[in-house]
Specification:
The protein has ten helices and 14 strands. By secondary structure, it is an alpha/beta fold. The strands form three sheets. Strands 2, 3, 4, 5, 6, 7, 13 and 14 form an eight-stranded mixed β-sheet that branches. α2 packs antiparallel against α9 and α3 packs parallel to α4. It binds N,N-dimethyl-L-histidine (AVI). The site of N,N-dimethyl-L-histidine (AVI) has 11 residues, from β12.
Length: 323
């Protein structure tokens, strides 16, 4: 389902307002990580998931492939599947195939990236007995539309995979799950992927890979602002940085300016000065413990139905049911 013209204009002005708020924030400038995913950023993220250093996506895929049948068996009846941030759809295949063996299944990917939505449709269109309707929307707006379409007796399974929840600053992760829960009915389910704590050097390598793909992914955010808002960020004067914040147990991505410079974001109508050594914070990626996942569920009125974890790359898939 394509966004209307009015919505696209709204999104542009929301983006402009977010850029202004983030880049004028003191003492730490920031840009929201959701803006990393324009067409180029979405494709760079797909490459990141293939990097030897970045085991997160492969762990997520292994767990879904090995446990799809059990996940589906634990959710009897007529289930509609909604996915928040479908990406290219490749991880969802096993779940949809398992549901489709039981009955015809509706799948609603919800994505703000039209590129990812198109890739997802292409990737999954060959599965028999699955109908796909994509929503080019923010997560909660899309989920509201999906729930409005549910028929009496149908339950919803929301997929929130790949540890995207970790990209919400705490306590925004709790607030976001509460908002999802408020949209759902008791008995609806949430399959939540969370990346788990692991050695810091392994994490730094995953977010500062030797090919420089993550650096390109991060820098593309400035390049996107240049393209869409006629800004004049000089990409060569910023350096990608991945650091571990042990207080929050999160990897943070930053872009560090190597000189003091003025940057004008022409179409958003403002300019800023960035000092030498100052950073723009572009992403948080929280690493959970299993106890934290349990507490997240408790705080958001879900009960843990089942949990599977990967040992090769510590990662957990948790099936939560709304109470
Ligand atoms: C999408 N998200 C879970 C990724 C992560 O690991 O936090 C995004 C990413 N950023 C850098 N590499 C991958």
């Amino acid at each position: 389902m394509m966004a209307s013209r009015a919505l696209v204009l709204d999104e542009v002005s929301a983006f402009a307002a977010d850029i202004r708020a983030g880049l004028t924030k003191a003492p730490q400038k920031e840009l929201a990580s959701k803006y990393l995913y324009d067409e180029l950023g979405s494709r760079l993220f797909d490459v990141i998931s293939l990097l030897p250093e970045y085991g997160l996506t492969r762990a997520d895929q292994r767990l879904l492939r090995r446990n799809a049948r059990e996940i589906v068996d634990r959710l009897p009846g007529d289930i509609v599947v909604a996915e928040l941030g479908s990406g290219n759809g490749s991880k969802t295949r096993w779940i949809l195939e398992a549901f489709s063996r039981r009955r015809h299944t509706s799948y609603f990917p919800i994505e703000i990236s039209p590129t990812a939505l198109a890739m997802c449709r292409r990737e999954l269109s060959d599965i028999d007995s699955v109908s796909i309707v994509g929503f080019e929307r923010e997560y909660l707006a899309g989920l509201l539309e999906v729930t409005a379409r549910r028929r009496p007796g149908q339950h919803i399974l929301v997929l929130f995979l790949g540890s995207t929840i970790g990209n919400f600053d705490h306590p925004a992760d709790v607030t976001f799950l509460q908002e999802i829960r408020a949209i759902l009915n008791p008995g609806d389910a949430l399959l939540l992927g969370t990346d788990l704590e692991k050695p810091v050097d392994q994490l730094i390598a995953a977010y500062d890979d030797s090919l420089g793909v993550t650096a390109a992914f991060n820098l593309n955010l400035l390049s996107r602002v240049n393209r869409e808002f006629s800004a004049d960020f000089v990409l060569g004067s910023f350096r990608h940085e991945a650091r571990f914040n042990s207080r929050t147990s999160s990897i943070e991505m930053h872009l560090r300016s190597d000189r003091t410079q003025r940057v004008t974001i022409a179409k958003a109508g403002f300019s800023i000065v960035i000092r030498a050594g100052e950073t723009i914070w572009t992403e948080t990626s929280h690493k959970y413990t299993l106890a934290e996942v349990d507490s997240l569920a408790r705080k958001t009125s879900f009960r843990r139905e089942a949990q599977w974890s990967d040992t090769e790359w510590p990662f957990a898939e948790t099936l939560l049911v709304a109470v």
